[in-house]
Amino acid sequence: MNYIEFLNRMERLKNLIDLECTGTAEEVAEKMCFSRRTLFNYLDILRCEGYDIKYCKYRRTYFFEKKPQ
Question: Range of 26's domain?
Answer without folding.
Answer: 3-66
